[in-house]
Each structure stands twice: as structure tokens, then as C-alpha cells.
Design goal:
- The chain has 35 helices and 17 strands.
- The protein is globular.
- Helix 14 runs antiparallel to helix 15 and helix 18 packs across helix 19.
- By secondary structure, the chain is an alpha/beta fold.
- The strands form 4 sheets. A 7-stranded parallel sheet has the order 3-4-2-5-6-1-7, with helices on both faces. A 6-stranded parallel sheet has the order 8-13-12-9-11-10, with helices on both faces. A two-stranded antiparallel sheet has the order 14-17.
- Helix content is 49%, strand content 11%.
- The chain starts with a helix and ends with a helix.
- The chain binds adenosine-5'-diphosphate and zinc ion.
- The site of zinc ion has 8 residues, from helix 16 and helix 17.
């Protein structure tokens, strides 16, 4: 094999260019030196150790705490023809021995290990391998100051010291300045060089919506999701209860959705996650427990149902969208309730002051009136020169006006109420409300009573929050959210200083606002029919090989095929993400689809799973539907299974006998409930068809 990094990038991974810093990092590893790589999620960290691993004669050890991610990464590597394997507590003794054998014989280029495995093995056969590079993924786990501290990571230093000649590479997506030094020291990196790539993810649009009442929020989300038909997305909620509520709501609205939280048992969670990775479930509503371990590149959108605790978490979570570089949308909902709740959580906890500070920054971001990407990046120490043009503020720039008089009305209201009341009372007084509490407090006698009648409640709220953000008033969460006037506030009140406010955006504009949709750099006309056809092909390969669809081809590669229409091997290799191995494995099938598309020329409408459903409702048998639609019967069975899972009226019980379901159940249980068809097929002596297995599994899982 060619040992030149650039050639490997092209031939093995199918990419033409390195992303910024990748090449330097690779060269440093090849020169035998330590590195510390800080890149955002989806930035392309893996390539930094995978390519050196292919250049070296020997083995590269990759330490990763995320067991499910490990399997995905290894599958992705194998599908590019790379000898990769993994080793953690989830594999059987026999499989373990096989891996050991191959490692010893030098047949493995990349070996993924969990930290606890590595530590327990570090004085055994592992030591005798020809280790050329050690990559430590999620390196922030070594830092006690971080949010994912893993005690086993602290023992990696001893391993580092036992291999003084081997280059180490630490990689992470989150580490502020103080954490960086801590991580380098804890891991015992030697003379390491820090590589920080831009944290800007241009393909993610950013939108924030504040103070939306719950029922409206649900409606908005349902509308959002409807527009994203068939695209994968994640909704993050604060509580387990919320995840179930939101999932129910969307489910009733006819979407393919599941919830996910730490209260579920591991098998259930695994099942939900796998269905999402395999594009069977499109939407996951989850607490933040979801997403750490997945590497799905075609997540097209992320919604936060509540305010996240800090910007680090927020950025990491939205970063799970659009890893393939295609435009993806993110939306954050928040209200003051979330904020107050978190502040209370933080009280008395460890690092309380720091947590509160981070929460404040999060809120400032949510309420900001200037380019959000600028604020976000500056938090991570990066400074954009121009506004991004792809956030809601850029799409609807604020209009400023002299707000001194308005501010004085509010401030004098606060002063006259002796700084004892919160926002709602202040607004009621300013608007001259007849509210009983206003009278009870004697506030209707105040001079400020009714001076702000001409401004709506919602707008007042917006202005007062702006005053807080500008530091004129402080919200005392420890005192029932009473408002206090700061020294600057007093200056404005005494007319020693003036201030600017921005006009709130009218609600209608908010709902109709359009975010600029980013274009793919070399975007041409995507033949959508062909794209759908290719997606179908990918999904049938994915089922057959039991690999996640995006491991076979990214959405981006398929889109490019549907633009470029490659029909020769050379043309096919020109598609981004297609290396030699994928060309050999899937090239012919894809090109056949493309050729057919080209000759048919007249664009024909591709029927969907719904057509199967319609024919089924007309009373056609699966075989008849398959014949009519020119599809495999297995495909029809899997359509029917999916429809059934989605709650559509499909009588699966009628299509597969109870005896068969029972057989499948036994095999399924014996195979430790792995949801994969092939092993079951083999276990049942190839006597039960894939279609029947598929339907049986659906029934078994649905009826437990
Ligand atoms: P990270 O580990 O930093 O979250 P990954 O290594 O998973 O990111 O990379 C994200 C995506 O970018 C993957 O689909 C990967 O194949 C792709 N990628 C990495 N490097 C390049 C490159 N030089 N050109 C095009 N795509 C790349
Ligand atoms: Zn912007």
C-alpha cells in the first residue's frame, strides 16, 4: 500500500483535500512526536491518527471510553478496507482470543480499546506488540475539572511512561485553557504541540426562541419536524418526563420517533440507539445522556427543548448535527423557568460559583441581540471578523433606539418598590394593572403606576431583560428573583448616562423568518429522484451487511452522485468519500442505478413506503406488491414491519405464523438479543426467510 498520507486520504477514504491542520498533525505523529488535538465534534479528528496508523508498519492503539462509538468507528474503517478491531468488555471470550491472535500476528492496523481494558492489559501481551502510535480520544475525560471525568484515564500516564519512544496523541472537542494544561500533565504528554482548529461549524444554522409557552412550543416543533420529513434529528430535553411527552406528541402526529433517557434499561437504550443509527427511527427525544456514543453523520437538525446548562454542552450537542458538512439546522428554546431551576440546582453543589457563571453565559447567549456565532466562538476564544449570516439575529438584525426614557421608567419603578419585587410585578405596576397583588402591595399609589401603559407586557419583558443584560439591573435569584439596580442603573436613572435598546421582533416576523440556507460549495442540480433511489440502494445494502447506512456512504456522497452521475470507475472514484474499497464493493450497484436513471431519462416518481401501505390496504399480498413495484419481497416485508412499528394498521400477525415467531424468539434470545438478521437466519438453518425474521423481531419487540 502507498504510504503517502495524501494518497491514503484519496485512495482509502476518498477525500481530495486535508482539512486545516490534519496534515500537520499527521506529519508530527509520523515524526514520532506527541500532539494535543482540539477540534470540534465532526471536525475530522479521527483522520489525524487513522492515516498515520496506515503509514506505520505496526499497530496503533486507540483508547476510547465510548463502547458503542468504538464499534461504529471500527465498522467504518473496515468498510474502507482497513484492518481495524476493538476490544472491550462487551465482546465474548472467543472473539477476544481471535483479536489477540490477529494482533500478535501483526494483522491489525488499528486496535480500539476502552481505558479499563488497556490498563488491565498493559503488562501482558499488549506490551509485546509493535506499537507505533497511541491515540487517546475524548482526552478531557482525564481532567477532574471536566464534566466527564473517568478515573481510569488517570492511569494512562503510566502506560505513556512505559512507551517512551512511541508518539501519543490526545484528542478532544472540549477543553478550556486551564483544562488543556491539566490534560497534558495528567496524560504525561512530552513536549507536545497543541493544535486547535477552528470551532466554527459554518454548516449549522443557529436559531434561538425565548419565552415560548409549552403548547406553542410543541406545535412549533411539530411543524418544524414536518418540514424535515424523513430526515434524522435529535430533540434534547431537561427531564425524562419531557422526553416522553414530546415523543408522544410527535408520535401522535405521525412521526417516526422514540425517546431515550437514563431511566431506561441498557437493552432498551441500545435498541433505540441502533434504530436511530440505522435510519429506522428518524427522531430521538432525549436527555443529554444521548449522543455521546454515536457518530451518525447525517443528523440534519437538533432542537433544544430547554436551556442547556452551559455553552460547552450546547455547542457539543448542536455539533451532532451535520457532521457530513451538509447544511443542518439547530434551534434552542428557553425560558426563565429553566434558568431559575438550574440556578437552584447549582446552589450548594460542587463548583457552584463556576456552574452559575457558565449558566449566566448561556443565558446571555440566548438573549443576545448580536450575531450568535460570534458570541459562541468568542466564548471558545475565537474571533469572527464578520457576522455569520447564518443565525437568527443575522437574519433579522435588531433595530436600535434611544431607550433611556423607557429604562428610567422601569428603574424608578424598581426603586419605588424598594427593590423587593420581580419582573412580573414591575410590569404590572408600569402598565397600571388592576391585579389584586398590585393593590395589596399598595403599588397603585406609586408615581410610576401606569406610566408604561403603551408598551405590551411581552415587550416590557424583553426590555427589562435587555436592561439586565446591559448590567443596569440585577436579578437576585436568591431573593425570589427580586430586581436590584446596579451602580450603572442609578446613573441612567439620574440621567447621567443614556442607553440604547433594541426593538423586539414582532411575533409574526419571528415565525416567518427565513434562515439563509447554505449551499454546498460545488452544488449543482441534485436529481432528487435519483438521490432517493440511491438512498434506497444504500438502505438495502445496510440491511444486508448490517451496517449503519452512513457507514456505507454519507448523504453527501450520495448527493454528489446524484449531481455528477458517475458511470465509470474513474468518475465514481471522483466522488467525495469514495475510496478504492467502497468503489469495489458498491460501485457497480450504484452505477447501475445511475445508468438506469440516465437511460430512463424521463424523471419518474419513485414510490415510497406509503405506496406499499396503500397497496396493502387494497388487499394485495406482499408477493403481489413486490411484483407490482418491482421490488424484493423482503423489502416489502420490511416496509410492512416499519409501518407496523409506526403504529399503522398492518396485521403482521397474519403474515407470519406464531410457530415461526416462537422459533425466532428462541434464536434471538440465544444470540443475546442482537437485532441482526443474519445470525438468526443462520441459527435457524436458513429455513426461515429474512422477511419472516424481520417481521417476527418487530412483533417480539413491540409486544414485550
Ligand atoms: P470528529 O472525530 O472530530 O468528531 P470525524 O473524524 O468523525 O470527526 O469526522 C467527521 C466527518 O468528516 C467524517 O464523516 C469524516 O469522514 C469526514 N472527514 C474527515 N476528514 C475529512 C477530509 N479531509 N475531507 C472530507 N471529509 C473529511
Ligand atoms: Zn450570525
Amino acid at each position: 500500500m502507498e504510504k503517502n498520507p495524501k494518497t491514503i486520504l484519496k485512495n482509502v477514504f476518498g477525500y481530495d483535500e486535508f482539512r486545516p491542520l490534519q496534515q500537520e498533525i499527521i506529519e508530527r505523529a509520523l515524526a514520532g512526536k506527541d500532539s494535543f488535538v482540539l477540534m470540534p465534534t465532526g471536525g475530522g479528528k479521527s483522520m489525524c491518527f487513522q492515516i498515520p496508523a496506515l503509514c506505520f508498519e505496526g499497530i496503533t492503539i486507540v483508547v476510547s471510553p465510548l463502547i458503542s462509538l468504538m464499534k461504529d468507528q471500527v465498522q467504518a474503517l473496515q468498510s474502507n478496507g482497513i484492518q481495524a478491531d476493538f476490544f472491550n468488555s462487551s465482546i465474548s471470550r472467543q472473539a477476544e482470543n481471535e483479536v489477540i491472535g490477529r494482533a500478535k500476528r501483526g494483522e491489525i492496523q488499528l486496535l480500539y480499546l476502552s481505558p479499563e481494558k488497556l490498563i488491565s492489559l498493559s503488562n501482558t501481551w499488549l506490551r509485546d506488540l509493535n506499537i507505533k502510535l497511541v491515540a487517546i480520544d475524548e482526552a478531557h475525560c482525564v481532567s477532574m475539572w471536566g464534566h466527564d471525568f473517568r478515573p481510569e484515564y488517570t492511569q494512562l500516564k503510566a502506560f505513556r511512561n512505559s512507551l517512551p519512544e512511541v508518539p501519543f496523541m490526545a484528542l478532544t472537542a472540549t477543553a478550556d485553557k486551564s483544562a488543556r494544561t491539566d490534560i497534558e500533565q495528567q496524560l504525561g504528554l512530552k513536549d507536545s504541540k497543541l493544535f486547535i482548529s477552528s470551532f466554527d461549524r459554518e454548516n449549522l444554522s443557529i436559531e434561538v426562541r425565548g419565552q415560548v409557552p409549552k403548547d406553542k412550543k410543541l406545535k412549533e416543533i411539530a411543524l418544524f419536524v414536518k418540514k424535515k420529513k424523513n430526515e434524522s434529528g435529535i430533540i434534547y430535553c431537561l427531564s425524562r418526563k419531557n422526553t416522553e411527552e414530546v415523543a408522544d406528541y410527535l408520535n401522535e402526529d405521525g412521526h417516526s420517533v422514540a425517546f431515550y433517557h437514563a431511566g431506561m434499561n441498557p437493552e432498551e437504550r441500545e435498541r433505540v440507539q441502533t434504530a436511530f443509527i440505522h435510519d429506522e427511527t428518524k427522531i430521538i427525544v432525549a436527555t443529554i445522556a444521548f449522543g455521546m456514543g454515536i457518530d451518525k453523520s447525517n443528523v440534519r437538525w437538533v432542537i433544544h427543548y430547554n436551556l442547556p446548562k452551559n455553552l460547552e454542552g450546547y455547542y457539543q450537542e448542536i455539533g451532532r448535527a451535520g457532521r457530513d458538512g451538509l447544511p443542518s439546522e439547530t434551534r434552542l428554546y428557553y425560558n426563565m423557568g429553566d434558568f431559575v431551576l438550574y440556578s437552584q440546582f447549582a446552589d450548594g453543589g460542587a463548583n457552584s460559583a463556576m456552574q452559575k457563571e457558565k449558566l449566566n453565559r448561556m443565558l446571555q447567549f440566548a438573549e443576545a441581540k448580536s450575531c450568535r456565532r460570534k458570541i459562541l466562538l468568542s466564548y471558545f476564544g475565537e474571533h469572527l471578523i464578520n457576522d455569520c449570516g447564518n443565525c437568527d439575529v443575522c437574519a433579522n438584525p435588531p433595530r436600535h433606539f434611544d431607550g433611556t426614557l423607557l429604562a428610567q421608567k422601569a428603574l424608578s419603578g424598581i426603586a419605588r418598590m424598594k427593590e423587593k419585587e420581580g419582573i412580573a410585578m414591575l410590569i404590572n405596576v408600569l402598565r397600571g394593572s388592576n391585579n389584586a397583588e398590585v393593590h395589596a402591595g399598595g403599588y397603585s399609589q406609586l408615581k410610576t403606576y401606569g406610566v408604561g401603559k403603551d408598551v405590551s407586557f411581552i415587550d416590557w419583558r424583553d426590555y427589562i431583560i435587555q436592561l439586565a443584560n446591559q448590567g443596569l439591573i440585577e436579578i437576585m435569584y436568591s431573593e425570589g428573583s427580586a430586581l436590584k439596580i446596579s451602580p450603572v442603573g442609578w446613573k441612567v436613572l439620574k440621567s447621567e448616562q443614556s442607553i440604547k435598546l433594541t426593538l423586539p421582533i414582532p411575533a409574526e416576523e419571528k415565525t416567518s423568518r427565513k434562515l439563509k440556507v447554505m449551499k454546498m460549495a460545488e452544488e449543482g442540480e441534485v436529481n432528487t429522484d435519483l438521490y432517493e433511489e440511491l438512498k434506497k440502494l444504500r438502505s438495502s445494502i445496510s440491511k444486508e451487511k448490517n451496517l449503519p447506512a452512513y457507514v456505507i456512504f454519507s448523504d453527501k456522497s450520495l448527493k454528489q452522485m446524484a449531481i455528477d452521475l458517475p458511470v465509470t470507475e474513474n468518475q465514481f472514484l471522483g466522488i467525495s468519500g469514495v475510496g478504492m474499497n467502497k468503489m469495489e464493493q458498491y460501485g457497480a450497484d450504484c452505477m447501475e442505478v445511475i445508468r438506469k436513471f440516465k437511460t430512463v431519462a424521463k424523471p419518474k416518481k419513485i414510490p415510497t413506503i406509503l405506496d406499499t401501505f396503500n397497496m396493502y390496504k387494497e388487499g394485495l399480498s406482499p408477493e403481489e406488491i413486490a411484483r407490482k413495484r418491482d421490488l424484493q419481497t423482503t423489502t416489502i416485508y420490511s416496509h410492512l414491519s416499519q409501518l407496523y412499528t409506526e403504529g399503522k394498521e398492518v396485521n403482521l400477525e397474519k403474515l407470519v405464523s406464531k410457530a415461526v415467531v416462537d422459533k425466532v424468539r428462541v434464536a434471538f434470545n440465544e444470540l443475546e438479543r442482537e437485532i441482526t438478521l443474519k445470525p438468526i437466519f443462520e441459527k435457524l438453518n436458513e429455513e426461515v426467510s429474512y422477511g419472516e425474521i424481520r417481521m417476527s423481531l418487530t412483533l417480539i419487540l413491540k409486544n414485550e
